[in-house]
Write a sequence for this structure.
């Protein structure tokens, strides 16, 4: 049996998240992965795609669980990230990794019983192509599971404070997020289902991207409702607190029957 634990520990994100030397960071990310694994229990023995799989931590943890899928596929924009995962997880035959653009090939259409997309959409400048792509990947009756950070309400104040402290200590896999003016921070605390501040756009090797500043999960939820039925809205790290006091919000959705499938331009 392949040593997936060792492969996970070698992952660049895992080292800075669930194995962070900061206990609060490790706890928060650990709870996030626990939520993902709980939501994946319903797809035991089925086909699961992790869209934006990073270093492959979630899929590897899922394969070690009692609810392992028959097939797990991770997809990333970066060819280097894909190759790294292929090398570290190559001994696990149920796991494979592909570039995002490779998902546009016909064998992937309507193939996956679940598509997970975790901590990705807050960075995406244009959601439409991503939502079109994942719609075509879902098997009939399949579920889309999304998690995004809560960057509005009281949590944004707590997060900005924590980011400053982490930055001073040199902890974290990014230096934080673009700073807010006091006016912008107030608008984030009071934000409703409309975009409340202008989001900065950055260029990197894989194209334009956002950092966390100005992300509003309520805006994303309204966009999702145009294409998906939302079955559940959850939060982590402590589900009982709800999205208003959580650090992440989760959506479990299914494609509306009126939405076109592979080959459409929708």
């Amino acid at each position: 049996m392949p040593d997936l634990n060792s492969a996970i520990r070698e992952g660049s994100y895992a080292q800075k998240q669930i194995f962070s030397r900061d206990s609060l960071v490790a706890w928060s990310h650990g709870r996030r992965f626990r939520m993902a694994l709980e939501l994946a229990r319903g797809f035991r023995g089925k086909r699961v795609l992790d869209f934006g799989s990073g270093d492959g931590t979630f899929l590897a943890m899922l394969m070690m669980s009692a609810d392992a899928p028959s097939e797990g596929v991770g997809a990333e924009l970066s060819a280097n990230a894909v190759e790294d995962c292929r090398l570290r997880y190559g001994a696990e035959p149920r796991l494979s990794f592909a570039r995002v653009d490779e998902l546009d090939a016909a064998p992937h259409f309507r193939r996956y019983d679940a598509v997970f997309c975790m901590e990705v959409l807050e960075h995406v400048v244009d959601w439409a192509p991503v939502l079109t792509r994942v719609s075509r990947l879902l098997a009939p009756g399949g579920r889309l599971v999304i998690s995004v950070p809560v960057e509005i309400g009281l949590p944004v104040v707590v997060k900005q404070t924590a980011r400053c402290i982490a930055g001073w200590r040199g902890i974290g896999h990014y230096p934080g997020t673009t700073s807010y003016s006091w006016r912008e921070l107030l608008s984030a605390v009071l934000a409703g289902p409309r975009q409340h501040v202008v989001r900065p756009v950055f260029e990197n090797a894989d194209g334009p991207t956002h950092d966390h500043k100005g992300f509003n999960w309520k805006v994303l939820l309204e966009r999702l409702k145009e294409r998906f039925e939302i079955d559940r809205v959850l939060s982590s790290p402590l589900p009982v607190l709800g999205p208003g006091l959580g650090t992440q919000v989760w959506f479990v959705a299914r494609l509306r029957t009126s939405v076109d499938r592979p080959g459409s331009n929708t």
